[in-house]
Amino acid sequence: MWVCIDCGERNTGTPDECAVCHRPRPAPRAAIWEPPEPPPLWIPEPADPEPNGPPARSRLIPALPIAVLIAALVTAAVMGGPRLLGPDRPAPRAAPIPSAAPTTPILEDDTVDLVTVAAAVTDPRAGDVADMLETYFTGINERDYRAVAGVLDPAGEIDPADARQMAAFAEGTSTTRDSDVVLVRLAEAASGRLRAEVTFRSEQKDGHGPPERLDETCTRWRAVYVLSTAGNTYRMLRGDATNEPC
């Protein structure tokens, strides 16, 4: 039986609607969950007091293997730990920084004079002239054209203050290496000047040889330089030379 909530009619059986007002039978209510009763609370009984006196031997025995194990692990960590990271090897050294390549060639032995004076030259000025020639030829070998400019007379064939003339001179001697320079004669010239006769050997790259033999890489020269004088200072005014292959 169920009672209609609208008209209060008591309906028997299981009709789907009220017999009087025809209201649909309400759906049965879902069961309401109620928590089960908790189990009875368990209260542990107090433990028996330990007897007085030293602890029993059986309680120490389990602790010993644990202590030994811990000590073994510590030793393994100290002695074997680094080996776990890989084989021992020295720390890599930083690659050395290469030094900058010199911008000018370096003579094999710069303590040996490039220019020598022939025994036949007895003029007391030969030493100072040889020093001037040393500066000139060493400057060419080391591409130190500032040093070369220092022994050129501005009134001569090449004006050291003229950038274009010096650039042309540098280009013409850019691959040249002179050696066997010998002052073979020193004589007076007009207007208080000197004539210095010099022999030397030059090596140069193919294409930089004398104008008549551009492909020549080794040449022997005999040059005569006219020098201006100012006390013990000598500078080149001009030069003339002959040459032949080595």
From TrEMBL:
State which residue ranges cross the membrane: 60-79
Stretches for region Disordered: 31-56
UniProt KW keywords = Membrane, Metal-binding, Transmembrane, Transmembrane helix, Zinc, Zinc-finger
| Domain RanBP2-type: residue ranges | 1-27
Q: Does the keyword Manganese apply?
A: no
Q: Report the GO molecular function annotations.
A: zinc ion binding
Kindly provide the name given to this protein in its UniProt entry: RanBP2-type domain-containing protein
Species whose genome carries this gene: Actinoplanes campanulatus
